[in-house]
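Example 322, ligand NDP.
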Amino acid sequence: MSDTIEKLVIIGSGPAGYTAALYAARAELAPLVFEGSGFTEQNQGNIAGGQLMTTTDVENFPGFPDGILGPELMNLFKRQAERFGAKCVMEDVIAVDLASRPFTVTSETQTVKAHAIIISTGATAKRLHVKGEDRLWMKGISACAVCDGALPIFREKPLAVIGGGDSACEEATFLTKYASRVYMLVRRDEMRASKIMAKRVEENPKIEILWNTVAEEALGETVLEVLRVVNKTSGETRDLKVSGLFYAIGHKPNTDLFVDQLKMNEVGYLVTKPDTTYTDVEGVFACGDVKDPVYRQAVTAAGSGCQAALDAERWLGANGIE
Ligand code: NDP
């Protein structure tokens, strides 16, 4: 372990982490940012750059009237933070000790001490665990259409998306670029999605919405071939011949590292003091999706990253750590 004590370590990247890094770097705190490791099939929660790395066009980030690709936007965020001295490393943090000061942060290759920590670990796409899913995971079943949808196994094939939120609409629309047909399974008789996104799906001739429908079983020898679904109103079972199944059913906050160390709500989101990014441990701050079950937007995450850096800077100053 190095003898140096970092003033500020930021765990997690994405709009929140990089914005915190930008502000902290400009405040000359030289933050060390553990961005998360590179993308693999297994670690979808720890992608350096966060969830926007698995998105295509971002149309609602202010300042980009023509839209911008998610990965391009995150690259710009990162470059801007690095320009002012943020030290970004593409590694996952595997342990933290918040019980003694300075805090200890252990990544895959190093252990560092830190006076203050900002947590921006985001959230991960949920899976349903229907029968057959574990066997066929990544053999036709995925939680990210944008990451995997362009693969040859899905080209010109019928595909299915589960969910009725904005993500499901976005993914179903995206998949129509490649698929012959997209079934969208919505478990109720209405969507949670915003009106504009729902309308786009409803008007897309390649998308068939199956209302009140849930998945029962994924079938196939070596790859997904059939999705057995049930209509909850009629009780009728139907076998959809699909080569791909994509989950878009929401997210789980990435807070396993902090269990029994930081206050969380009943579903694992970090709890911060009202109108601040302070967690219940002094010197530890949280921003972005890891503490936000409500808004979860890139722009709100970026805003809370800025707040976390300002909170951390002021807290460090108040404690004589300049
Ligand atoms: P949401 O929580 O908004 O929606 C989840 C969807 O999955 C709901 O339709 C929900 O159904 C359904 N669902 C949940 N669990 C199950 C289950 N076990 N079986 C079947 N269906 C299930 O998540 P999203 O990821 O869609 O969106 C999260 C946030 O991100 C939102 O604020 C959204 O607006 C935003 N977003 C914005 C985008 C944009 O503007 N470009 C793109 C993507 C997301 P039910 O409604 O019945 O609970």
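Summary: The radius of gyration is 21 Å.
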